[in-house]
Structure formats: structure tokens, C-alpha cells
Amino acid sequence: MISSVFGKTKPVNYIILLAFLFILYWYVQLVLFQFDFDTSSLVIQWLIIGLLLFTVFLVNFIVRRNQINESNSYAILFYVLLFVLFPEVVTDNNAILCSFFVLLAARRLISIRTLKNVPQKVFDASLWIMISSFFYDWAILFMILVFLSIYFYAPKSIKNWLIPLVAFFTIGLILGSWLVLTNRVEFLQEHYVFSISSEINLSSYWLSQLKLNLFLAFVILATLFAFINLTRFGHGRIISVRIIASFLIIAIFITLIKTSEGYYPVILTFFPTAAILARYIEVFKLKKLKEILLFALVLAPFLVFVTEWILK
Question: Distance between CA atoms of 98 and 94, rounded to whole angstroms?
Fold first, then answer.
């Protein structure tokens, strides 16, 4: 049943997932965490939920346009389900904004595979990553992904290797001018501290810690299998999968060093995890086996969600 619905790309799939994510967002904000919003903060939250819903389209665009996954909706299904597994991430506006700009960067980097407008794509990706670091300082590590993409796709052009530096100076000049005009010159010193969290968990609650540890262990194994089974993806997709796997490794590292009460960088792992899971589902040709696996992957986040809610 699940494969018959999400095994194809239909408008109804977007409607189901977007409506569900919209309801989940406000349920977490108003019921689970019981936040009170004034008029100004409510406007901000509507902008945040708008960006969050847009990331669903962005994820689908990346995996479809670059032929990472086949013509189905599995990637966006898993992407939304990960919010059920970690509902607390929607309370962290910085995490959502950081993830949004990193996704924009990933879109440009993976599209370098066409070898068209490479300098422009490298510049854009570098710019988006630097903007994402305004929300999480450690997000600057995704610049590693820029240089990996240059190495994979167009390593012979020295100009490509220098473009990230141009992007750095460009955003530096713009940011510096804005900080001077707004009298906030201390922002850089206060923001880019690159501290490491002393509590590597989602909260002091033991189930949240266990959930995060098990999830990270799972995605690490998924990443290893992605590297081991690259031949299954076909020659044209191998580099794209390497970039996504590298994306996931960087995201896991940031999750481990940044996660603490109120900070949920685990959202950065959602896109690469969803893309890899979707590809594994596509490998299964037996319909019954695929349906059982899909049912288990859909049911698991809801079981964790309900269990955590009851035990709290």
C-alpha cells in the first residue's frame, strides 16, 4: 500500500507530506513544548514553517534532477518521517535555517556533474555555506564538501579552487559593512567560537540520548554501505552518492559536537539519510519485501514518538 502511493511522483504525495509536516510543526510548538508566541514571534514562526515546507520540494528537486533516486517519493517520505523521530528540531529556528542554506549549497554542488557553469556553482555553494554558518558556526565545515566536489568533478582548473576564497571575501565585505552600519561589530567574535558541547545528547532525558545514539549508529552504517555498494548505483551516480555520503559524515560530526539542550543540528543529517534510504528501497525488487521494509521504516518513528511521549 505504501509503495503504491509513494512509489510514484504524484501531487497528492506532496499534499499528504506537507500537510502532515505542517500539523506536526504546530503540534510540537504548541502542545509538546507549549510555547507562547507574541505577534512578532508568530510572524517569524510562519516564515520558518514556510522555509521548512519548502525544503521538502528542495530535497525532491535535488534527488530527482540529479538522478540520485528513481521516479518516486521515497526520499521526501523519509525526510518528513525523520521529523517525527526528532520532533524537537522544529523548535530550533537556527537549525532549520542552517539546514535550508546547506541544502541550497548541496543542490549547486551535486549539479556540477553536468560540468556546466562550474565556477558559478562553486561560488554559489560557497556563499550558501557561509550564510548557513551565521546560524551554526560549525556549519562552515561544509566548505570541505565544496573542495571535495571540485576534486571529484573539475580538479584541473586552478580557478575552481580559488573561487571559494572569492566567495569568502565577498560575504566578508557584505557582512562587515552590515555589522558596521548596525553597530554589531562584535558579532563575529561572539558567534564563531566553535565550542564543543559537553553534553552529547538531545536532553538530560535518557531516551532522547539513546534515540540519538542509535540513529547516528544507523546512519553511519548506512554511509559505510553506501561506499561499499557504490557499483549498485551505476557509474553516472557514483560521484553524487560520494558527495551525499560525505555530506552525511560532516553532518554527523557537527551533530556530535554541537548537540546540547536547545540545539538540534541532527536536522542536517536528514537529507542525506533520506536520499540513501530511498536508494536502498529502490534496490529491492520483491514487492512484498519492499512493502514490509517500508512499513517498518514508516512505523518506527511513530513508535519512538509515542513511546517518548508516554514515558515523559
Answer: 6
